[in-house]
Each structure stands twice: as C-alpha cells, then as structure tokens.
Amino acid sequence: MGVTPQDRDFGLGRGKVFPADKAKSLLNPVRRLVQSPGRTVAAMGLTAGARVLEVGSGPGFFSPSIAAAMPNGQLVLVDLQAEMLVFARARLGQAENVALAQADACALPIHTGQFDAVLLATVLGEVPDRDACIEEIGRVLRPGGTVTIAETRRDSDFISLRSLRDLLLRHQFSFIGRRGMAWQYAASFRSGKPRPNQISPSGR
To answer: Is it the case that residue 3 has pLDDT exceeding 80?
Structure first.
C-alpha cells in the first residue's frame, strides 16, 4: 500500500520530497540550460500516438514537451503532491489528452500494461523504496515499453548510471542507451517483463 504525503519527509536535503511551496524554483528558465526538456523528451523516442506516464511530474517542467511530442496520444501525470499537479495543469493549458493523478510512485493507480513509455526525471532518488517503484513501472508498461530516467548532479538525490543500471536489470529491464554525460544524463531501458497472463504455468 502506498504512502500519503503526510507520511513523507519534505525538504531540500537528500532523500526528502521536494516541497510544493518551492515548485516555482523548478521552473526557472535557467534550468533549461542544464536539463533541457526538449533533449530529455527526445531521448524517449516517442511516437505521435504514444501513451505516456510521467511519474513525479512536479510542476510540469517536462510535461509540455512530452505532450507536444505525442499530439495524438495520451499523457498521464502522477505526483505525490496535489499542489504540484495544479502547477502542471496550468502549464499544459487546454490540452485534452492529459490526465492527472495524485499517487505514490510505489503504488500507481493504473491498470497493468497501459503505457508505451514512462519518464522519471530527478525523482527516483526521493523514493524510499526504489525497487518497489521500478517494479510498478514495469507493471504499468506494456511488454517492450520503455522507461527513461533523467538524473543530474545538481540534484541532491543524484543516482549514478551504474547504480541505475543495476537497479533496472534486477527488474528485467534491458539498457537501451544514454544521452548526456555521466553527471547529467537521460538513460532509457526496455521492459522485458511479461504480463501475468503471459507467464508459463511453471512461473518461468
């Protein structure tokens, strides 16, 4: 069962959830020079009709670029804080192919195998149980779907690519590639996990 916002520690330090009352700082235009939404979304390789989930969307720094990349698809934003989703909705304007849900990244209120792609940008380090989060990502992706994880050293919760690869490989993802540098990158992985009804009776 997922946690509620009241169960989590908010703040700017390592392992803490970035608070919604500081959300405007995440939308600082200077951030685009360091972590470009366009380049990050390009790393996802989206098609026009893709179904995309953004986990830990925050105030929607990346969201408009995702929506623009798949005009005939569907974008779902999930964040632990409802206030963050209010910011994100405002940035997305009247886009009709967008839905929002307040939820914990380790307990997504989404049916299995619904998405072609998932983005987690500078949020995985805030999740107390990263294995549970990646297990959920694998569950909601269709077989062969992709997850892109963006990290930067400017974030106190930075995860190295080596650690990230070890984590994803444990959950039957295969590494596709990385864009960017070792200290600031967007890494993509492909889901290899079958849906429950595709598992053989032996469980193998």
So the answer is: no
